[in-house]
Design a protein that fits this description.
single chain; alpha/beta; Rossmann fold; 7-stranded mixed β-sheet; 17 strands
């Protein structure tokens, strides 16, 4: 465990240099988002940040921006579709996909519906997916594409609670005729139709959950047996969000590139929840092979990663940064064998 300013983070070698903006102790303190659950905080961010950029994802060679208002539209539609599908407060959903914007849309859609969200590694085999989905009692599965869909279709007969499978990308699946399977686009459309005349449905779902209710399940790697679901309440996560974000001194001017698995608690907290609290922008990589290129394009001001990834895949950094890694203080840049210090 390494010390970070006045806070701690398990499992990383990331050390921080607090930003000195004249605040007491050199740390930037900002007003916290209102809300005692993750969904309440999310909608507080949507209301207060409006048309500010929340995230980016590269599509067809262009970085597409999504504002907080548009983010809210996506989440509202998914929440409404879940409600229309009979999803109840306390129900669980699994997300089987690589790190991408739709992962977060589904995550906050589930949380806004009063549900419990559980991520599954996209590299997991069907039997591993079955274990997680069965253990959490998932009634809905969000999957990335035909490859991930195939895994769920192989095991769905052994998942009696599963009622719906939502697919992010339908390439190669246009002729699929399965009443349990729907595209994310069609799912959102059904949600918009159901929500007509129900302006307060999200408020009711948010009110159904309290800070001590279960929010997410994070499954262990299973090195000593089958993976076990770590039960994290809204209070667990919000305590970290509200106390750790100021220690990192990140704010709405910061940029982060997200490429670690969102089903892991590290990226879920650092790359999603803390950025929600601070208002920093998240940029989702195109795919694992374009991390270095995407870093050069975005020039992030804040980088988080576990040491194992730094060791396996040095990331070229071409812009000054305010953070410094204790495990690797420099990465090679194009044409610069000595690397560039991370500041």
């Amino acid at each position: 465990m390494r010390k970070l300013g006045r806070g701690w983070l398990y499992g990383t070698d990331l050390a921080l240099e607090p930003r000195d903006d004249g605040a007491a102790g050199g740390m930037v303190r900002r007003a916290r988002l209102e809300g005692d659950t993750l969904a309440a905080k999310f909608w507080s961010a949507v209301r207060s940040r409006g048309d500010s950029v929340a995230l980016r994802q590269k599509e067809f060679g262009i970085w597409e921006e999504t504002s907080w208002r548009q983010y809210g539209d996506q989440v509202r539609d998914i929440c409404a579709a879940l409600c229309a599908d009979g999803f109840q407060p306390g129900d669980s959903a699994v997300i089987l996909a690589n790190t991408r914007r739709e992962w977060s849309y589904a995550d906050f859609g589930v949380l806004s519906a009063g549900g419990v969200s559980a991520g599954v590694y996209p590299t997991d085999a069907p039997n591993q997916v079955e274990h997680v989905a069965a253990d959490c009692g998932a009634v809905v599965a969000f999957v990335e594409d035909d490859e991930q869909l195939d895994k769920v279709l192989q095991i769905r007969e052994r998942l009696p609670k599963l009622r719906r499978i939502v697919v992010f990308e339908m390439d190669g699946l246009r002729d699929l005729d399965d009443p349990m399977v729907t595209s994310l686009e069609a799912f959102r459309s059904a949600g918009r139709t159901w929500a007509q005349g129900k302006d307060d449905f999200i408020a009711g779902r948010i009110a159904s959950r309290g800070p001590d209710d279960l929010a997410i399940l994070v499954y262990t790697s299973g090195t000593t047996g089958k993976p076990k679901g770590a039960m994290l309440t809204h209070r667990n996560l919000i305590t970290v969000m509200e106390h750790f974000a100021p220690e990192l001194a990140i704010d709405e001017t910061d940029e982060k590139v997200s490429f670690l698995p969102l089903c892991h608690v590290a990226e879920r907290m650092i790359g999603q929840m803390l950025l929600l609290e601070a208002g920093a922008r998240v940029n989702y990589v195109e795919n694992p092979d374009t991390v270095a290129e995407n870093f050069r394009e975005i020039q992030p001001t804040f980088v988080f990663c576990v040491p194992r990834v730094w060791e396996r895949r040095p990331v070229p950094v071409s812009s000054p940064m305010r953070r410094r890694s204790a495990s690797a203080c420099a990465w090679p840049t194009p044409g610069s064998p000595d690397g560039l210090p991370i500041r």
